[in-house]
Structure formats: structure tokens, C-alpha cells
């Protein structure tokens, strides 16, 4: 995640190559998260413990989101079109997976961390689950909370003309992560009321962003609310702030590539993110112990840097295609693993040959299901989103006037998704 600031910015790649290497990164990250869960459930003897496969994939996703999402917004120069696109990109598969889990609940009970009240509904509707200290219907939904926080904050910065300060934000959130690790041992804001407040703010704010009424005010209220929830209401405050630092690090790398930023904030933010859990009382898990955490961060950063260095070369087509279905693969695989475990029983107790056979069959099923949802859900809904955005773009805005940037050389990524998730 860090590089020598003395190096000149690399030449800009063609848009096709740029999309290919980002898709390849998403595919690699999605496979890493899938393997983390599959190995722990089916073949624990093969699970690595010198770094965390799942967190490695998540960090790569967040770097990709940070790299491409602000440029997507700036390339459009249209907050309304950006949010319409995000909505049609994220929600269809997300709601489909939520519905699948609820149907499966007749057979496999929903986990206890999911609230059975209106607060749980609002948490899922806003995607702010993790920063509202509640579990999602699918375990992997937690990362979408930070994608949503990042989108809200980037929108606020864009409307205020402050979106170029990516390096400062990366370092700032890294410092917040260290401070939160030292100070907080649990969320300060507890109970259901943050979900009710967030739900109301989100609904009104989204109406303003789409309609154009009081857009700048709404953007800043949404952005500030999202950051406050991340720091004071999330399950692990230091981790939430560290994730935002990682995402703005991705943006800072992009600014450097465009010649409008420097690399020293990338190095500084990397160090701060690495140190965030070291002295934290909320760092009892094996994967945040210094050796494992440092290694995971280093591997994620090296993977991103390596893919960026190779972005003008032809990458494995299979990996690029996996990137296209990465959002579906990311959300679908965990419910599938639960279903397979319920049918097959404890795979860990089976013979190695059976473990391998069940694992291979599960991976194949996850890929096939993701291909189907990509083709019949994601692609049609993204096309619909573009049509809706074009229709709405013809309507005038009213209220606060949003910041109007100069023409951008950035190219909006219509195919890009969230875990950055796979949604970057």
C-alpha cells in the first residue's frame, strides 16, 4: 500500500486495461473471501493462519473501491446519476440474497445477531448494518456498511469541492483508527435508536440527493452522520476508521496516478492502519495480532500494486470474468455454505477425499449461481439504472447548488460494483 514518493506517476492506461485489472482484483478478492469461509468450514487443515484470507480479500476490495468510486462520481459530475447507478448496482442482488436467507429460515434459523424488529429492517434498508452494531441476514453484508459510509462521505466532499484531499483524509482516518483503538472498548452509542435516526436521515437525505432539493445540505448531513456512526456506533470503531483510511488510500493512489497528489500520505496511512489494533482492547482475535495483521495488510497492498503495475498487460481471462460476478459471488457463497453444511453434515469430520469433493462442488455451485444472478439480475438492473439516470438527468435540480467541477479525465466505471467490495 506504500510506494516511494520519489517515483513519477505512471502513464495512464487505456480504459479497457484499467477495467480489466480492476475486475481481476475483484475476482481474486472474491475468491479469497470464499476460500476463507469454505476452508474454515470444510477443510480447516488447509486454512492459513499466518495471514487472514478473508480480510486480505476485503482490503483488496476496499482499495479498489477507493481507487474507482470517487472517479466514477467525478466522471459523471452528477450526484443524482451516481446514486441512481449505485442503487441499481447494489440493491437488486442484496435484496435477492436477503430474500433467500429469509426463505431458508424455515429450515435454517437466521443467526441471533440479526434484530427481529424495525431497527433490523432499517439497518438492512440503509446497508449501514455494521456501523449500527447489528448483524446482517448474510454474514458478508457487514462490509457493505463501509462501502455505503464511503459513498456518503465522498458525495459530501464532492458537493463541497473538497474531494481532492484524499491523502489528508487517508491519514486523518488512520489517526482516528489509532485513537479509537486506544480509547474505545465498545460502541458508545447502543440500542435501537441509532438505527431509527439513521433510517430517517437516510430516507430524507436520499430524497434530497435524487430530487436536487437542498442537495449540498443533505449530502453533508448524510456524510457526517455516517462518520459519526462509524466511530461511535460500529462494532469495532478502530476497524471502521481503518477501513475508511484504506479506501481513501486507494483514492490517494489514483490522485497520484493522475498527477494531482503525492504518495507520502499512502505510506503514512498504511503505518497508521497497521498500528490501529496494536494497543486496542478490541483486538483479541487471532487475525489482528501484529504479525498476522501486518502480513495481511502487506499482501493486500502488494497485490494491488502488482495488479496496477501489470494493468497494461493481458490478464487471465478467467480472473477478469470472476471479477464481473464478484458481487454476486461475495454475497451468495455464505448462504450456500450454510445450506451445504446443513445437508452434508460436518464435512470436517469426513475423509480428505470427500472434503475435497464437497469443496470443489460447492465452489462450482457458487460460481454457477453467481453467473446466473449476474446475467439475469445484475446486468438487466444496471441497464435499467442507466436508463433511469438518463431520464432523471433531464430534470432540473433545485435548492442548494452543488459544486460543479471542471471537466474530468476520469472515466466512470458503469460495470464497477461495492466489497469494493466487489462494488468498487
UniProtKB/TrEMBL annotation:
Keywords of this entry: Membrane, Transmembrane, Transmembrane helix
Record flagged with keyword Transmembrane helix: yes
GO CC list: membrane
Region annotated Disordered, chain positions: 390-424
Domain of life according to the entry: Bacteria
Keyword Ligase part of the UniProt annotation: no
GO MF terms held by the record: acyltransferase activity, transferring groups other than amino-acyl groups
Membrane spanning stretches: 49-69, 90-108, 144-163, 169-189, 196-214, 220-249, 291-310, 322-344, 356-377
BP term (GO), one: polysaccharide biosynthetic process
Acyltransferase domain: residues covered: 20-370
InterPro entries: Acyl_transf_3_dom, Acyltransferase_3
Protein name per Swiss-Prot or TrEMBL: Peptidoglycan/LPS O-acetylase OafA/YrhL
Amino acid at each position: 500500500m506504500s510506494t516511494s514518493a520519489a517515483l513519477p506517476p505512471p502513464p495512464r492506461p487505456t480504459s479497457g486495461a484499467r477495467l480489466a485489472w480492476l475486475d481481476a482484483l475483484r475476482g481474486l478478492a472474491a475468491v479469497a473471501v470464499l476460500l476463507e469461509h469454505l476452508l474454515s468450514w470444510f477443510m480447516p487443515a488447509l486454512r492459513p493462519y499466518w495471514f487472514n484470507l478473508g480480510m486480505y480479500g476485503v482490503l483488496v476490495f476496499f482499495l479498489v473501491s477507493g481507487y474507482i468510486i470517487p472517479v466514477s462520481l467525478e466522471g459523471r459530475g452528477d450526484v443524482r446519476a451516481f446514486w441512481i447507478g449505485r442503487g441499481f448496482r447494489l440493491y437488486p442482488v442484496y435484496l435477492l440474497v436477503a430474500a433467500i436467507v429469509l426463505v431458508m429460515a424455515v429450515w435454517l434459523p437466521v443467526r441471533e445477531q440479526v434484530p427481529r424488529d424495525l431497527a433490523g429492517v432499517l439497518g438492512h434498508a440503509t446497508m449501514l448494518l455494521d456501523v449500527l452494531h447489528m448483524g446482517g441476514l448474510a454474514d458478508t453484508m457487514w462490509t457493505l456498511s463501509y462501502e455505503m459510509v464511503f459513498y456518503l462521505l465522498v458525495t459530501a466532499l464532492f458537493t463541497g469541492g473538497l474531494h481532492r484531499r484524499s491523502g489528508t483524509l487517508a491519514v486523518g482516518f488512520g489517526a482516528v483508527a489509532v485513537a479509537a483503538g486506544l480509547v474505545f472498548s465498545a460502541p458508545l452509542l447502543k440500542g435501537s435508536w441509532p438505527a431509527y435516526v439513521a433510517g430517517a436521515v437516510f430516507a430524507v437525505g436520499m430524497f434530497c440527493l435524487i430530487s436536487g432539493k437542498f442537495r449540498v445540505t443533505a449530502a453533508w448531513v448524510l456524510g457526517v452522520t455516517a462518520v459519526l456512526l462509524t466511530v461511535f456506533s460500529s462494532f469495532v470503531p478502530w476497524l471502521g476508521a481503518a477501513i475508511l483510511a484504506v479506501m481513501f488510500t486507494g483514492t490517494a493512489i489514483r490522485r497520484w496516478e493522475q498527477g494531482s497528489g503525492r504518495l507520502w500520505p499512502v505510506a503514512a496511512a498504511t503505518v497508521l492502519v497497521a498500528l490501529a489494533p496494536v494497543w486496542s482492547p478490541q483486538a483479541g482475535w487471532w487475525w489482528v495480532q501484529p504479525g498476522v495483521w501486518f502480513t495481511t495488510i502487506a499482501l493486500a497492498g502488494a497485490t494491488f500494486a502488482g495488479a496496477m503495475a501489470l494493468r497494461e498487460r493481458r490478464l487471465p481471462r478467467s480472473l477478469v470474468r470472476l471479477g464481473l460476478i464478484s458481487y454476486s459471488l461475495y454475497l451468495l457463497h455464505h448462504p450456500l455454505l450454510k445450506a451445504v453444511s446443513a445437508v452434508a453434515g460436518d464435512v470436517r469430520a469426513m475423509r480428505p477425499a470427500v472434503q475435497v469433493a464437497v469443496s470443489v462442488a460447492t465452489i462450482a455451485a457458487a460460481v454457477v449461481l453467481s453467473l446466473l444472478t449476474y446475467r439475469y439480475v445484475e446486468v438487466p438492473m444496471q441497464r435499467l439504472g442507466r436508463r433511469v439516470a438518463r431520464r432523471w438527468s433531464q430534470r432540473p435540480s433545485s435548492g442548494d447548488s452543488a459544486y460543479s467541477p471542471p471537466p474530468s479525465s476520469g472515466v466512470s466505471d458503469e460495470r464497477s460494483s461495492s466489497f469494493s467490495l466487489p462494488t468498487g
